[in-house]
Amino acid sequence: MVSRIILVLGDQLSRNLPSLAQGCKATDLVVMAEVRDEASYVPHHPKKIAFVFAAMRKFAAALQADGWQVAYTRLDDPDNTHSIVGEVRRRVAQHGAQSVIAVEPGEWRLRAELDQLSACTDTNTDVIPTQYRRITDSRFIASQDEFEAWAKGRKQLRMEYFYREMRRRNHILMDGDKPVGGQWNFDHDNRKPAKGKDLFQAGPLKFDPDDTVAEVLDLVEREFPSNFGRLRPFWFATDADQAQASLDHFIAHRLETFGDYQDAMLADDSFLSHAVLGLYINAGLLDPLKVCQAAEKAYKDGAAPINAVEGFIRQILGWREYIRGIYFHEGPDYTSRNKLNHNRKLPDVYWGGETRMRCMAHAVAQTRDEAYAHHIQRLMVTGNFALLAGIDPHAVHEWYLAVYADAYEWVEAPNVIGMSQFADGGVVASKPYVSSGAYINRMSDYCKGCDYSVSHKTGDKACPFNLLYWHFLIRHRESFSQNPRMGQMYSTWDKMDEDRRTTVLKNAEKFLHRLSEGQPV
Ligand code: FAD
Ligand code: DLZ
Ligand code: SF4
User: Fold this and answer.
1) How far is the CA of 160 from the centre of ligand 1 (A)?
2) Residue 325, helix vs strand vs coil
3) Ligand 2 pocket check for 412: Cβ under 6 Å
4) Residue 147: pLDDT above 80?
């Protein structure tokens, strides 16, 4: 006898899910479904699909072992309706359930689709009347209500102030009411370039595919043969125990250097000291507060310095929570914002097309192989290039949502539309994150061996970032010249020789023309 359905989505794989906490093993049925609608609203990286499906299957098995009744739809089940709403309706009809509960999805699109479940109550005679109730997601450290209370009445919603509030409220890295170490933020200590690959031996913990993963890999290979991205080798954690082991491994081996090399990039090291935990936290396999507490403990035990621990905790307690707050605060139109009116098509280089730019080639190839790039690669290589070249931000958003294993709209969109593309007009960032090639050269080893020369400012060998940087600033001068954080950039331009300025802009135009024509750049 089933009276109620508890829907569990592919990124809600937590044993502390509030819907399960309210549930009854005897009378509730957990419904989970692998469906084409979710697997193809963007062309997800095959590793991402495999991660979600394998983790879903293992989570369902763990629930069953724990005494829950679970109805699980596999992608190739013949009766699969291939939408979440379709699968809920099918299970409602099959089991005669009267109501459905679900933790609110992390995306406006799916929230609207699921709301149809209540809309059809009593009106559509084909469908068994269902009561649908959305439960607040308590897996974030701050609730959306808390974020809204913080945001209320503020002219600007800057992460740093929200973060301090979160530190105080959760007693993380606090010494009474003062921040541990005497300052809130140690970011200025976190900008060391990397010196060589032997600094970074450990890498993230990798897992051999077990039977469940192997079966899913075959399915994904068969069903999504042309999606961008390499499926094998597949080494992600796919259950909570493995994710916990990945966290322990990070804390033991890489947290110590996380701060120093947070912004560094190396061609032969895809991970450096980054945690590679985002995909596990976002899917529910790790609890964000517990991750912060584990890092804080490492500091207290003397295992990692304050700049590393504060920097790491700021990413989760600060950025991740803030980003989620912004997504729901700003509303469903957020992903279509285009404040700078950028309309160029996403160039083929993002899908592995030929390019002479070594930094772009590396960031994209790594993305193809690992479904992963770290923050500075996303922000200052692929994101920087898209912004400077004036690519349509919605196309950029869809690319990021597709290619990274940790990408769900609530977290990806504010990072891309806001932080990286400035398409929200400054809600997330106080100025656009743009740089010439000099920044990439300082923070990476990409420029050595690039076909372009980072020291050339004009001419055929000139690094495209050098050309486009000025082109971007000049074409948006009206929007940015009053920004106090950008005045220095404009005064540098104004001091440049007139002929040089003309050449830079002409060379940039030529480059952009080739990009628009689909020629390799
Ligand atoms: P680390 O660098 O080791 O950081 C530790 C943790 O902090 C991460 O696991 C993550 O949980 C959190 N974190 C760090 N920065 C952010 C941030 N800006 N927003 C939210 N959480 C953060 N993150 C995603 O989870 N999904 C995305 O789709 C995503 N898209 C991005 C797109 C762009 C253009 C940019 C600039 C950033 C994006 N980020 C995204 C944020 C960040 O790049 C990733 O969280 C991080 O690279 C994940 O790798 P990691 O686990 O090794 O993180
Ligand atoms: C990302 C994803 C994929 C690839 N497939 C599924 C799926 O088949 N079934 C499912 O329940 N969830 C999947 N997901 C995760 C959802 O897309 C995610 O829950 C929403 O985007 C909201 O964050
Ligand atoms: Fe990238 Fe320019 Fe350096 Fe080449 S020279 S790797 S294009 S920043």
Assistant:
1) 16
2) helix
3) no
4) yes
Side-chain-facing half-sphere of 197: CA atoms under 13 Å? 9
Query: If you measure from the C-alpha of residue 374 to the centroid of ligand 1, how many angstroms do you get, rounded to a whole number?
Result: 7
What residue ranges do the domains of the chain occupy? 4-135, 144-204+254-330, 348-516
Rounded Cα–Cα distance for residues 393 and 399 (Å): 10
CB of 243 sitting under 6 A from ligand 1: no
Q: What whole-number distance in Å separates Cα of residue 1 and Cα of residue 240?
A: 30
Amino acid at 475: R
d(CA 465, CA 236): 34
> Tokens for 160?
């740093």
pLDDT digits (tens, 9 = 90+) for 415-464: 999 999 999 999 999 999 999 999 999 999 999 999 999 999 999 999 99
* CATH number for region 348-516: 1.10.579.10
Q: Does residue 441 line the site of ligand 3, with CB under 6 A?
A: yes
CB 246 within 8 A of CB 277: yes
319 lines ligand 1 (CB under 6 A): yes
Cα three-residue angle 85-86-88, rounded to 5 degrees? 65
CATH number of this structure's domain 144-204+254-330: 1.25.40.80
Q: Is the CB of 383 under 6 A from ligand 1?
A: yes
How close is the Cα of 488 to the center of ligand 2, in Å?
45
CB atoms within 10 A of CB 109: 13
Is residue 196 very low, low, confident or very high in pLDDT (cuts 50, 70, 90)? low
- In the CATH scheme, what is the code of domain 4-135? 3.40.50.620
In short, whether 393's Cβ falls inside 6 Å of ligand 3 is no
CA 278 to ligand 1 center in whole angstroms: 6
Closest CA to 88 of 103, 78, 99: 99
